[in-house]
Amino acid sequence: MIKINKLEIENVKRVKAVKVEPAQSGLTVVGGKNKQGKSSILDAIAWALGGNKYRPSQPERTGSAVPPYLHLVLSNGLIVERKGKNSDLKVIDPNGQKGGQQLLDSFVEELAIDLPKFMNASSKEKANILLRIIGVGQQLAELELKENDVYNRRHAIGQIADQKAKFAKEQPYHPDAPKEPVSASELIRQQQEILARNGENQRKRQRVTQIQAAHAQQYQEIERLRALLDEANSKYEILSADLATAKKDAIDLHDESTAELEANIRQIDEINRKVRANLDKDKAETDANEYRQQYDVLTTEINAVRQQKTDLLTNANLPLPGLSVEDGELTYNGQRWDNMSGAEQLKVSTAIVRRLKPNCGFILLDKLEQMDLDTLKEFGEWLEQEGLQAIATRVSTGEECSIIIEDGYVAGQEGIQIQQPPGEIDPGPTWGGSTTWKAGEF
């Protein structure tokens, strides 16, 4: 990974002259009070490495007659300079070959020098950056579309099931009603059959009366017509036998009542209303159960899709353990961005930015006063563990600060000159060698 070994900055924004050798891993905290030049150092590094789109709108320090000067030595041996009236860029590799911004862009990650751009992005944008660098964005998007489709179908099925269940619950139930609607024509048919049987009974009763009359008349005929006694006796015996048979047939006869059928015919509308109500209730309960079964099937399908998403992210090469994407948003240890602590947000941002360009081994962080000392220490230890270099600013003059900026200088380097005035002799190499810095030197 490429890191910043040394940097010299002069006359950029509030910086007068600064020389710094950042720690190769962990935090280099640039402390100081407000308006002393802390953020100007980060802005200068971003300009030096990121190109003119990071050039400050007024780069020259107010009151300075000397143009800005930027000199960075990177761990891969590259020397990056901006100097002169137009602050032209010069990039020199260890072999003396010259390069330009394109060479820097090949390994300098834009978000590493502009971390707030990532941290201020929306949750969706952060998630998309993560998915892009681990190569599962398209697959996850397809799974999320599938999940949303199944979820919407399940939601619709659930609403229908609830409506059916509510309808069934509101319907009255009549336990005394028959299972099927009553037919008026069937009741009338039954009534007609009973009336026919009753008519037959009446006919038989009338026959008894007729035979009895004939029997009496014939007896009189016996008395009156003794001459025809034998014939009359024969007829009488026959009639006696017939009478006995008729009486036997009629003795156990009883008429059936049509009152119940007549009542049913009168109440058929009410009976059928109850039957239909029962059938509606049964149908609604059956429908509700069927929709609930469909709902459960879709729930199983949703869970399967979600498991596929989980497996996809679990098996992906994530830049930080605990990172994930849920519902299209970045999460860390189950927490969404707005629920993460400031240290967690910085850790997540740093890990993702690092993965964007693995060769870029440094980041710039402004305004670390949001962290307490314990959190700052924890974050620094994590950076060291990951072998990452961070140059950060903090409104503080405490022991946690690597250097203190006062009025545009590093405390202890006041009055240092980096660019040599015309006519003076260069005292020797800027870095290393036997050169000894006088008062205010680095």
From TrEMBL:
Q: Spell out the molecular function terms from Gene Ontology.
A: ATP hydrolysis activity
- Protein name from the UniProt record: AAA family ATPase
Record carries keyword Zinc: no
Q: Which UniProt keywords apply?
A: Coiled coil
Which intervals hold domain Rad50/SbcC-type AAA? 6-252
- Gene3D superfamilies, per the entry: P-loop containing nucleotide triphosphate hydrolases
Kindly give the Pfam families that the UniProt entry links to this protein: AAA_23 (PF13476)
Keyword field contains Coiled coil: yes
A GO BP annotation: DNA synthesis involved in DNA repair
Q: Which InterPro entries match?
A: P-loop_NTPase, Rad50/SbcC_AAA
Q: Which domain of life is it from?
A: Bacteria
User: Which spans of this chain does the record mark as coiled coil?
Assistant: 215-308
